[in-house]
Write a structure and sequence with these properties.
The structure holds two protein chains of two kinds.
Chain A (H helix, E strand, L loop, with lengths): L4 E7 L3 E8 L12 E3 L2 E6 L2 E5 L2 E2 L1 E3 L22 E2 L1 H9 L4 E3 L1 H5 L24 H19 L9 E6 L5 H13 L4 E6 H12 L3 H4 L5 E7 L4 E11 L2 E9 L7 H18 L6 H19 L7 E6 L11 E6 H12 L30 H9 L23 E5 L6 H17 L6 E3 L7 H16 L3 E2 L5 E7 L12 E7 L7 E13 L3 E9 L10 E2 L7 E9 L9 E10 L5 E7 L4 E6 L4
Parallel strand pairs in A: 1-10, 10-11, 12-17, 14-19, 17-18
Antiparallel strand pairs in A: 1-2, 2-3, 2-6, 4-5, 7-8, 7-9, 12-13, 13-14, 15-16, 20-21, 20-23, 21-24, 22-26, 23-25, 25-28, 26-27, 27-28
Chain B lengths: L2 H15 L4 H6 L19 H16 L1 H6 L7 H22 E5 L8 E3 L21 E3 L5 E6 L22
Antiparallel strand pairs in B: 1-4, 2-3
The chains are: A alpha+beta, B alpha+beta.
């Protein structure tokens, strides 16, 4: 039976939110019942619980002397060993060694053991670290407990839940997100891509959306969150006389977001102060970061004409006025940094700088090497077309995908300055090839759109609204070592076998008939695993001889065949791909006698 | 009721059911009284606690006590202005969050205001006040009234005397 409520959860890099819809609510003129945001109760100060519309994705691991006894109690737990949300964020500023933040970025970081206790990355002595999966679990748990506290008659675990992930998350990061949700006690979970969710939110807000887009239109979703930038193309098509939507392209994972922009602004004010001989310590820098953001928001308010906005850091200690440091955030600097630094006017052929490859690179988050989001956009629109598009994607003579509409998402785009710049750049690219300008789709409530859209999608899945057809957002391969005599010093070349083609739909499975592997029973066998968002036309079973730059290696996969019937035996198996209803990719080894073993991601590096 | 019967019925009622029936209890002149359960020991908070809590909040969120206690006579206006601008924002945010304020008379200051009734606690008459209540007068100050106080519950063990803890950084 369908659950009464459908819950959409935006598990963000810096903030989480929860929206829901009551499927039994009356719907007048609307396709689906309205979507509501759930205020999330959380500690905002020791001993003070308050409802806030966002839950900061911050986790603080307190020591014995951090908070007065009993001041961390929440309605569902009298003595939690950790703090989630606003208070965690606040206290983390004073003691960063106990703060876990940006857990989501670590979830997609293949260079580290993502199920190992690695966070906080630079933890203080004596802190019990936890894994990125565990941290995500705590945020999801908090949201579940908040729901159960507010809605005692409708237990969370009985409701349909949608959790969003960046479109650029690979199969491993998706599986890890799902397992965090399952560990948090979520029972009916489905994963949904954030840019799609933002588009659903737009549909939910515009009952007349069918009059606003037409078959042949191509919608570019630009989603710049706190920590990640995500691009998606959605094509409007016609199927059986009805409007249909297809998600036709997804961008690469770009670790670049609003937090980087605020930091850049704070750095510019810091330089201004340094020129005057004022040096700031860690806490003051944080205050500067926070106050620069407030100043930025004031300057970006519609109608604001001020040439600058003061940024003040109050004195440390009890000498407040005496120690006050004054600076100004100038509008000219703001425009130069945000608009011209992060969204420069570029040609559609300007590609972002590739990740620098230094011999010894510090392990940490792989932040984008190029901060120019417009260049990443050019690269995205220049992705080679997929045959699966069926010509649904409008392209310019030079092969650039040519959107007709653009939808913005993420708090960054509350600023008209930046929305206008993206439109300006897109229009210039299109005009150069004699195509008309793009039309911005007005998104509202950019901070909560993803959660709202997810709740809408939950109802759409029940046939009560339109559904975007998507499928696997990239092509996946397993690596096969060529059988060649070993040459010392030269690794055997690796070929890649296509196991999941781009666009393979949820709830389907496919066998890879051509290749059999001999697996030894009783020993773990490991497969190298690759993904590509650039190669979209490799059919299942296709063998790529040359594993080049466009294939990205992901965590290896391994399978351990139990040695029930005699160790040392060689079992011939073939591979089978399953894309589950929840949106997770699974690979299975199938023996000739139909016995099956699942390949598991080996996320320990 | 016969004394002997009453004694027997009481005896057997207590022996078999452990309690007297309503009827016997009434005849004996007994009344049922619910013994109140010991109330959970609540932290006793005094009016001073509420005042200290407000001070602690305004200090925590806007550093108002630091500002008021500082000798600002030696700083120039620009320095004071910069600090106050920042403090004013945060202090007002904090106040609005915990206390809901509204004018007593929602009118335009400097214009004639009709007075329905005059309660000396909420309206103060200035100038030449006649013995009979006047129909109205010039609104000089709108006054402030508190509509709602929304302070977090105090914790039993909290030491309210500490308005702001000392901060010690560990090297």
């Amino acid at each position: 039976m369908d659950s009464r409520y459908v819950i959409g959860i935006d598990l963000g890099t810096t903030n989480c939110s929860l929206a829901y819809s009551d499927s039994t609510a009356p719907t007048e003129r609307l396709e689906v019942p309205p979507v509501t945001l759930l205020p999330v109760p959380q500690l905002v100060n020791p001993g003070e619980l308050r409802d806030e519309s966002l839950l900061p994705s911050s986790l603080y691991l307190p020591g014995a002397l951090d908070f007065p006894e009993g001041s961390l109690a929440v309605p569902w737990n009298p003595q939690p060993g950790y703090v989630v949300g606003r208070l965690a964020q606040k206290r983390g500023v004073e003691n960063a060694g106990r703060l876990v933040s940006s857990a989501k970025s670590w979830l997609s970081q293949a260079g580290v053991d993502r199920t190992g206790a690695i966070l906080p990355w630079s933890a203080s002595e004596g802190v019990n670290k936890l894994s990125p999966v565990e941290a995500s679990r705590r945020y999801l748990e908090h949201l579940r407990d908040a729901w159960d506290a507010k809605m005692p008659d409708a237990p969370f675990a009985d409701q349909q839940t949608l959790v969003t992930v960046p479109a650029s998350f690979d199969a491993v990061a998706r599986e890890l997100t799902l397992s965090a949700a399952e560990q948090a006690g979520y029972r009916n979970v489905i994963l949904l891509e954030e840019p799609q969710s933002a588009f659903y939110a737009w549909i939910e807000r515009h009952a007349d959306w069918r009059q606003r887009v037409h078959p042949g239109d191509l919608i570019l979703v630009v989603d710049v969150g706190g920590g990640t930038t995500d691009f998606t193309l959605i094509a409007v098509t016609e199927r059986d006389g009805e409007l249909a939507l297809d998600r036709v392209a997804v961008g690469e994972h770009i670790l670049l977001g609003g937090d980087n922009m605020d930091l850049a602004l704070a750095r510019s004010v810091e330089r201004q102060l340094a020129e005057k001989g004022t040096k700031l310590d860690g806490l003051q820098l944080h205050a500067l970061w926070h106050n620069s953001r407030v100043a930025k928001e004031k300057l970006l308010e519609p109608g604001s004409k001020a040439a600058d906005e003061p940024v003040t850091i109050l004195g440390k200690g009890t000498g407040l006025v005496g120690g006050t440091i004054k600076a100004k955030l100038r509008r000219a600097d703001l425009t130069a940094i945000l608009r011209d630094g992060f969204f420069p006017v570029v040609q559609s052929s300007d590609m972002p700088q590739r990740q620098r490859r230094i011999g010894l690179q510090e392990i940490g988050l792989p932040y984008a090497a190029d901060a120019a989001i417009t260049k990443h956009m050019a690269r995205f629109l220049r992705q080679p077309p997929a045959t699966a598009e069926h010509g649904a994607v409008r392209r310019t003579p030079s092969g650039l995908a040519a959107p007709t509409h653009v939808l913005f998402n993420g708090g960054v785009f509350n600023a008209a300055l930046l929305r206008d710049r993206v439109v300006e750049v897109l229009d210039a690219w299109l005009a150069e090839e004699r195509l008309p300008a793009v039309q911005p789709l007005s998104g509202e409530d950019l901070m909560h759109a993803v959660a709202r859209g997810a709740a809408y999608y939950g109802l759409a899945r029940r046939g009560r609204g339109v559904r975007i057809r998507g499928g696997v957002p990239r092509t996946y391969y397993v690596g096969i070592e060529s059988s060649m005599p070993a040459v010392p010093g030269i690794p055997n070349p690796v070929k890649a076998l296509t196991v999941a083609p781009f666009g393979m739909e949820e709830g389907t499975s496919a066998a890879i008939p051509t290749q059999e592997f001999g697996l030894v029973v009783g020993e773990p066998a490991e497969f190298r695993f690759f993904g590509s968002s650039a190669r979209k036309n490799d059919p299942i079973g296709a063998l790529i001889e040359d594993v080049g730059d466009d294939l990205e290696e992901l965590s290896p996969m391994q399978v351990n065949l139990e040695a029930a019937d005699g160790a040392g035996q060689l079992v011939p198996v073939s591979l089978e791909t399953v894309v589950t209803e929840t949106g997770v990719l699974q690979l299975w080894c199938v023996a000739r006698d139909a016995r099956r073993w699942k390949l598991e991601f080996n996320v320990r590096s | 009721m016969n004394r002997l019967i009453l004694a027997f019925r009481s005896f057997f009622a207590i022996l078999f059911s452990g309690a007297l029936s309503e009827e016997i209890a009434a005849a004996l002149g007994l009344s049922r009284r619910v013994v109140p359960k010991a109330a959970p020991t609540l932290a006793v908070s005094t009016p001073a606690d509420g005042a200290l809590q407000i001070l602690a909040i305004l200090q925590r969120d806007s550093r108002l006590i630091d500002f008021l206690m500082e000798d600002i006579s030696s700083y120039d206006d620009e320095q004071v202005g910069a600090a106050v601008r920042s403090l004013h924002d945060t202090c007002r945010d904090a106040l609005n969050r915990y206390v809901q304020l509204a004018p007593v008379i929602d009118g335009v200051e400097g214009t004639f205001t009709r007075l329905a009734s005059i309660d000396p606690a909420s309206v103060k008459l200035l100038g030449n006040v006649p013995p009979q209540p006047p129909p109205g007068g010039l609104l000089r100050h709108k006054g402030w009234r508190c509509l709602k106080v929304d302070l977090p519950a105090l914790q039993g063990k909290q030491n309210m005397q500490v308005i702001a803890p000392a901060e010690v950084e560990i090297e």
